Structures are given as structure tokens and as C-alpha cells.
Amino acid sequence: REQSTTMRSPTIQYTAHWEEERTKEAVEKEEVFLAHIKINAKKSKEAYATLDGLHVDVLLAGKTDQNRCVDGDQVVLRVKGIEAWESIKTGKLAQNLRSPARDPVGCLSDGMRRTSISENNKHHRQTKESQSYVVGMETLKKLAQQYPTKRPTAQVVAVQKASRKREAVVGHLEFRDQEKGILTLVTRDAKLPHCIMYMEDIPIGLRRKISTEMRDVNAEKTLVLAKITKWQVKYPYPVAKVMKAIGMSGEIETESRAILEAENIHQDHDDFPLEAMECLPVTPWRLKEEDIKERRDLRDARIFSIDPITARDLDDALSYAELANGCAEVGVHIADVSHFVPPESALDEEAQRRSTSVYLVQKVLPMLPRLLCEELCSLNAGVDRCAFSVIWVLDRDGNIKDQWMGKTIIRSCAKLSYEDAQNMLDGKFSAKPNEEPPTLLHGPHTWNEVVSDVRGLNRIAQRLRKSRFENGSLRLDNKKLLIDLDDAGFPIGHRLFKVKDANRLVEEFMLLANRSVARFITEYYPDRSLLRRHPFPNGTKMVELVEFAKHHGIDLRAGSSKEIHESLQALLVTEQARRAARSIGLDVQTLFELMQILATEPMQLAMYFNTGDHEESDWRHFALAFDHYTHFTSPIRRYPDIIVHRLLSASLDAHSGKDPAESFKLHGNKDTDILSDIAAHCNDCKLAAKNAQEASARLFLAFILREKPRVAKAIVVALNGDKFFEVYIPEYGLQRRVNVENDHPGLKVTWDEEEGILELVGKPRPLSNDQEAPCNEVCGGSVETALVVKVFASLDILLCCGGGKGKPLDVKAELLLE
Questions:
Q1: In angstroms, rounded to a whole number, what is the distance separating the alpha carbons of residues 505 and 766?
Q2: What are the CA-CA distances from residue 178 to residues 174, 182, 395 (Å)?
Q3: What is the pLDDT of residues 169-178, one digit of tens each?
Q4: Strand spans (E) along 498-540
Q5: Which among 676, 789, 776, 669 is positioned nearest to 738, based on CA atoms?
Q6: Confidence (pTM)
Q7: Helix axis angle, 501-524 relative to 447-470, nearest 10°?
């Protein structure tokens, strides 16, 4: 069925995508490059792609060059010749400088400037189109270095792998052509294009409901989930099909479901396929005698878990014992989930599909059925559990003197909360005979022994942490927003998560276990292991950050992760930092928080990968400064950890003298191509879960603010001309955009680009909130006032609930002219 001619766009000239055979040949000749597309949510006509070896992202300028791709698609790119490259636009930090950011000599390490270039000596062939297109990665890298102020531009010639987002389009419907029954799906995700739908394809019941809503512009809208079915060359919009109605916008449960659907997260609490449930063991379950024989028996050891007080999926536990030679034996014990999830089973396939548990404000969507994640796999106190254990002999400085890894059977003696462990460290834990302890203690152990163990672990953890940062680790601690609920599940307040020594204690030993296992499995399977890497930061953005800091009297060095960390920590203690803070009107703690937030901007995402796909020099985790790192310690909630457990089983067999290839197959490990696909899928799912978790927290906060908006202190972190600026709100740990033009019509706005100052003149007014709220009491007024806005300025803003009528509910920041 043809789309209406009224929907054709004469300004957009898409081209047909290349056939598979042509694409394959061009990839082999390095005439094209594979990359994932990132659409600019603020300006959808701009899209970017990251190519290994370039210090700057490639630009797809305009819808024509994007050629019908969707955010997250893996595409085939043809990079244009240098004559078509564009000058690099300054980022939001550089826009606040009086002179453009440049690459200061010595600011960045060579590796960071080149964004992890892997040199090779390939000879590149020229084509008849060499004047118009770049052929070969080496040629592209040399041109990018030769013209550092230019951004490569490219066009999409094919979509190699469709984004998950094509099947997760959430929005509401509006008439485009009522007479012809053509509708527009107004998408909630600004990175996704609006879509075309036909009334006749919509179920009758939903059709009537939507028709009624469209007659009332003030009505809330029915949200629908749709998928993109086709996008023809001659039309500007794709065609989509409604999969289901989600519910009425503006309701907290509907908005929560919309968040999940938009991230392509469809699982609910317990909707596991019957085939997967049939893989579960029969209850009551007991460990078989033959399984016990192949495991080291640690049931008499003093092992305990430390978790959030509400946790029910206990992945990990710790043990500690002092040795006569002054060293300590420290154990990390991880639930052996692979024992219950057979490779290639229906349960394994479902766990792989989900890839991760998803933590929302009001509920958890588990990766595994609750029988496993809360009972049989969970390292609950007082019961026998299968585990993988990593046990070290550590000296007083945390140096590894000996190491053992293997399958074990353990019996945790206590489930400690982080609060319990912190009280032990602070000397506030009480478990006297006539007092009820905060948790049960199982076995022949005493609370004094447990307290001593926790303190011993903390002493070593502090040394491990100190050593880790001395060796180059970088920590960027951004605040995490937590929401408090009443008994009915409605939000009643907020707080910020506080990291204490008990949290750091657990973190250090989990990092050590992950690092140790990564080294062990790659010793036996260097070309087919699943590790986690963190690429170098974006070089251009890092240069902008360094120049921005220098402009404000802040000494930020960025030659390595260690230099970044030391520079940030120096903000808390040096006199230069105190002077810089005073000059811009902030205290040192707030300045430190702001610079940590700004330092996350150049960072790229850490990712799972198949070691066979990368040179060993590219395995490194930039932020941790580890050459080998993986995820081993959370198999109940992360599928990559299950894969690593299977790799560890095979490696242990190979270590004992068995054939490595046979051991690899015996434990259900994946061939390299399959492993690469799984790694990519897990990366997508992890990012989706993170997005959903953060959106859930903002949604519940928005509902609190809908009842009563709050005035809060904010710090300006970026100015972008006369239309909007960005602020950080310390009390909530949030960054928000303040829209001057849209939210405050009638203001007199003056933007001084040279000085980076925005001057606003107008009358304070009751601010619109799209809800009934006592805004008049907060910000009403009739006297004209002026406000000068510049970077690092502190000002009051009104936090309220934005969105509604089909648009996503979210936390909104509005300006107060006071």
C-alpha cells in the first residue's frame, strides 16, 4: 500500500540501500565502515558514529545522509572526502570559553588523543571515486590527524543490523489526514522519527478511544507500543504498526510501563515461558552426593554476605581468616548459577534474552525465575549453596601471595546489611547475650568473630583501594537518587545514596575477583573469552574540558586516568582549588561535584566484548586502569557472568590437565561469532536497564513534584545561546535543561557570546506546570527584575512535573526571576 503523496518530502532525497553482496565486498576493501548510529536527541537532523582510531565522531549531517536509519542501528557508512568535512562545532563546555578550545600540547596522552588507535601497515586501494570518498581506515586516520579541526562526514549506504528501538516505539496517535484515515505516531523518544499509521490497521476498540481523545486537546492520551515495519525511499517517515495499547498517559503505572516498553524491556515479574520453568529443579531441592564430591567443602568456614537491607538475590559472600605468618586468607564466594542453567536450554535462552535484571523504583524485573534468584542460587544464610570461590593469601598491603579458584559448597553464617557492616566498622554493632541481634547468626560462630572479620576485610580493602588509585584508577562518583515509597507503593520523598566504607569494602574484593578471573580465563582461552573493556575518552571533548577548567583557574590534567583522578581529588585539598572556588562563588565540595559531572561527558561506555575481536592492547579498562577485567560476581542478575562461569569451569579443567578444546565444549561455551553477538546484545540490554532505572527514579520524583513543586538551588553548568541553559541541582543529583524561550515568553533576552553571559529581564510569574500546583505562592510577582546567568552561577529554580497529554512525565526545571 502506497503512502499518500501529501507525505512525500521534496527536501529529503533518500537512496536505496546497497545489496548484501555489494556491502560485503566494500567492507573487505575498506571502502565503507561499520558503526552504530547515535541520533542527537536535541537536534535529530544530526547523527554521529564512533569509529575506532578516530579522536572525533563522524557526522551524518541531515536526514538524507542518515538515509532512513534509526538510533542504535548498526550501519554501513561511506565517509566523504575531505572537501565535504565540516568544522568541528564546539561542545557545550567550549561554548562557554571566550576562545575556541584547541588541543593543548601534552594535555592528552597519545592513546587518548587517537582514541585507541591500532596501527597497521595495510596498503589501501584507490577507486575512481577516491576524490569523493575516503578509502581505508589508515587513510581516514591520517586525514583526521592532518585536519584536527575538521569533522569527517559520512552517509549511510545500508543498515547492517536493525536497532532494538525499531520494535520499541512508544507514543500517542494524532490525525495527519482524517479524511484518508492516516495517523501520525508522535514518538516519546526524541531520537526516533514520528511514524505513519493507518486507522484501518488499529483494533476497533482502540480506534474509538483514540478518536474521542483527539477531539479534546486537553485530554490525556492513550499510549501505544508500535514497531517500525518499513521505510520506503520516497517517503520522509517510516510506517509503523500498533502492537498494543499501554494505558493512559499521566498515570504512574502506565508511565512506568511506557519506560520499559521504550527500552524494549517486555518481561514482567514472573512471565517466564513454560519451557523455561520446566527446566527448574524439583523442590524441595538438595545437592546430590556426586556434586558435593567435585566441590571443595567450605560449609564450616565463617562466610557471610553484605548486601542492601532489602536484597533478596544474594550473589556474593566473603570470608576472612588471619594466618600465622601475618598474611590473611580472603575468600570471595559467588553463587554458582551455571549449575542450575544448562547451556542451550530454554531457561538459558530466556536468561540470555533478558540479559540482566532491571531495578525500578517500585519493583525488580528478574533475569531468572524467583525460585533461583531468591532461593536456590541466592547465598542465603544457614543453607547449603553451590558456589564458585576465589581465595587469596594476601599480605598486609593486599599483595597476592597465593591464589585458588574452584567450585565449592558453602553455608553462609549471616546475611549482613551494609548498615550492619558499617556499624561494625564504627564500633556501634551490638549483639550482647541479652540483646536481640539485627540478624540471625548460624553455626558455631560468634558475633565477635564476625565483627573481627569485617574489620580485617576493611583494613585490606583500604590498602587495595589506595593501591588501585596509585596505579591509575579513576572514580567519578555521581550522586544516585533514591525514592521512598509508602505502604501502597506511592512516592513520598527522596534521598541521595551515600557510599560508605562498608560499600567500598565489598566493591574492592569484587573488583579483585573480577580481575583475577579475567586473567585466569584468558590464559587458557585468549581468543574466545568474554571480558569488559572501557575505551579511551573522546579526545575532542576531553580537550574542551581541560580548556574549560583552565579558563576558570582549575588545573585539570588529562594525560591518563590517573592524572584525571588526581586532578579532581586535588580540588578538595589544594589552595589553588580553594582560590578557584572562591573566584566563581562556590565551595570546594560543590566545585568537586560539578567537575566530576563534567568529567563524565568525554567518557565512553564500558562494554562486553569477545577477546577474539580485539587486539590485546585494546582490552584495557580505562577507568579502572586494568589490562584484564570481566564480570564474574553477579550471575543472578547478569547473563555475562554466567558465560564467564562456564569459561571458568573450562579453564579449571584445562588447568588440571584436561584438553582445553574438549573442556570448552563440555561446559557449553560459545564459538567466537556467537559470543560476539551475545556480547553486543548484553551491551544493549545493560544500557536499556540503566536508562529505565534512571527514568523510573525521575518519574517517581516527578509525581512528588506534581503534588507540590519545590524551589531548589542550582548551579549553571553550560550556556547554549539565548534559548536555554543547563543546571546541576545538588540536592537531587540531577542535571536539567532550563528552556528560556519556550517556558518564559515575553522575557527580554540578551546573549553576550564573547563574555558567555545571558541577561534576562522580565516579571516573575506563576509558572506553568501542566498540573494544579501552588506555583502562585512560590513565584508570583509584578515587579520587573533582571537576572544575569553565567557558568557556575548559583540560582534558584523551580522543580516541577513536566510533560503530560501524551508526553513523558519527567522532572522539569523552570526559571525564577528572583
A1: 49
A2: 9, 6, 76
A3: 999 998 888 8
A4: 530-533
A5: 789
A6: 0.90
A7: 70
